[in-house]
Amino acid sequence: MGTASEAISKLEEALEIYPKKHDTIWSLGNAQTSLPFITKDLEDAKLYFRRVMQCFQQAMEEVFISTWLF
């Protein structure tokens, strides 16, 4: 989980600076996709999948909003 955790940490830092950057949110979701498969606890896996879905949903909403505004 080391490389994924490092990527997640860096992406979360980037989102602190610019929280609505859709490609960073999407990348965070991608980085989190491996986590449900390497955890042994089913409830933790479900939580990871929910976080991934939230990232992808938020990224799509940000794309829609930015497209709609311009």
From TrEMBL:
<keyword id="KW-0472">Membrane</keyword>
<dbReference type="Pfam" id="PF06552">
    <property type="entry name" value="TOM20_plant"/>
</dbReference>
<comment type="similarity">
    <text>Belongs to the Tom20 family.</text>
</comment>
<dbReference type="GO" id="GO:0045040">
    <property type="term" value="P:protein insertion into mitochondrial outer membrane"/>
</dbReference>
<keyword id="KW-0653">Protein transport</keyword>
<dbReference type="GO" id="GO:0005742">
    <property type="term" value="C:mitochondrial outer membrane translocase complex"/>
</dbReference>
<keyword id="KW-1133">Transmembrane helix</keyword>
<keyword id="KW-1000">Mitochondrion outer membrane</keyword>
<dbReference type="InterPro" id="IPR010547">
    <property type="entry name" value="TOM20_imprt_rcpt"/>
</dbReference>
<dbReference type="GO" id="GO:0015031">
    <property type="term" value="P:protein transport"/>
</dbReference>
<keyword id="KW-0675">Receptor</keyword>
<keyword id="KW-0812">Transmembrane</keyword>
<comment type="function">
    <text>Central component of the receptor complex responsible for the recognition and translocation of cytosolically synthesized mitochondrial preproteins. Together with TOM22 functions as the transit peptide receptor at the surface of the mitochondrion outer membrane and facilitates the movement of preproteins into the translocation pore.</text>
</comment>
<keyword id="KW-0813">Transport</keyword>
<keyword id="KW-0496">Mitochondrion</keyword>
<dbReference type="InterPro" id="IPR011990">
    <property type="entry name" value="TPR-like_helical_dom_sf"/>
</dbReference>
<protein>
    <submittedName>
        <fullName>Mitochondrial import receptor subunit TOM20</fullName>
    </submittedName>
</protein>
